[in-house]
Every structure is written in structure tokens, then in C-alpha cells.
Amino acid sequence: MKKNIGSVLALYPSPAVVIGATAEGGKPTWTLVAHVGIIGHDRILVSLASAHYINGYIKANGKFSVNIVDEKILPKADYAGSVSGAKTDKSGLFEYEKGENGTPMISDSPLVLECSVKDTYITPGFESFIASIDGTYVEENCLNSDGKIDYSVLKPVLFDFPAYEYLRTGDIIGKCLTLKEDTED
Question: DSSP assignment, residue 88?
Fold first, then answer.
């Protein structure tokens, strides 16, 4: 028997990512986010609280990076989400390089998406940026022999919002479309 616990956002855990954008003077700014999603084969959505300092720069530049968090960068990523860019200069938090469209990308992130904003969807308290992926940069050791991302090597950190905890990933439990269940007709 299942119990109705009300209107609870229960789609967690989700990947922890650091969003990067170019701020004043060409310096980067960063924030930790777990509200990210896929909305098609060619679009992603990044949802940020309206009060986030970085939002203005994303809207002004129309570009941002999505930097996957692994355990190596987790402490700095956690800090990026705990202080406001309006009060703290986070430009020196990570070593970075600029992608082909000019967005700051964390050098130590194992996978970075460079994105361009295509639309913004407003809901109470949030601005959700719908973006195309201009480039995907992956550490070569995180690619398999077919050139595909190997998440058992990359091991992105997941964030569980209801428990406010980070989770480790990496175990493969089966191959998609090959698992069969015994069913009786």
C-alpha cells in the first residue's frame, strides 16, 4: 500500500552541476545547481532561483556552461552553492578555460556542456533557461572504446534535495532494452 505524502518533488537525486557564466570584466562566476533536465534530444533546461546573481549574466550573454561535478571538485562546488556571487567573488574558485563560444568551463570538471540560451521560462521564484548544447567536452579517460561517455568511470555526483545529501554513482546494473521479466499471459 502506498501513502500519499502530498505534493513532493520526488524526482531526486539529480546530477550536481556547476553553472558557469561570464560576469563583469570578463571574469567567470559560478553556482551549484541540481535543477537540470533534458527536454529533447537537442535541448536542456537549467532552473535557477530568480534571486541568483548569475542569472543576470546568463540573460545578458545568452551563454553558460554546465560543469558535471565529480568527487574531486565536490568541495569547491559545494562552496560555489553556499555563497552568493553578489557578495563573494567566486571567479578564482576554479581553474578554467574558455570554450569555443567563450563561456568559462571548469578545467577539472570531467564533462562540460557549453550552451546557448534559446528561451527562458518563468515560474514563481524561478527562471528556467532552455538551451542548446553547442559543445560537449569530456576527459578522454571518461570515454569508452567507441568514443561514448563511460559514466562508470566519470562517476557524477548526485544531489538528493529532500535529504540535502550528495550521493556516489558508478555501478552498472544492466544494459538497457535487454532486461527481461518473466510475465504470464
Answer: S
* Integer CA distances (angstroms), 143 to 67, 92, 151, in order: 17, 29, 9
For the chain, give the secondary structure using H, E and C: CCCCCCCCCCCCCEECEEEEEECHHHCEEEEEECCEEECCCCCEEEEEECCCCHHHHHHHHCEEEEEECCCCCHHHHHHHHHCCCCCCCCCCCCCEEECCCCCEEECCCCEEEEEEEEEEEEECCEEEEEEEEEEEEECHHHECCCCCECHHHHCCCEEECCCCEEECCCCCCCCCCCCCCCCCC
Whether the CB-CB separation of 44 and 125 falls below 8 Å is answered with no
Tens-place pLDDT, residues 45-68: 999 999 999 999 999 999 999 999
pLDDT below 70 — which residues of the chain?
A: 182-185
Rounded to two decimals, the pTM is 0.93
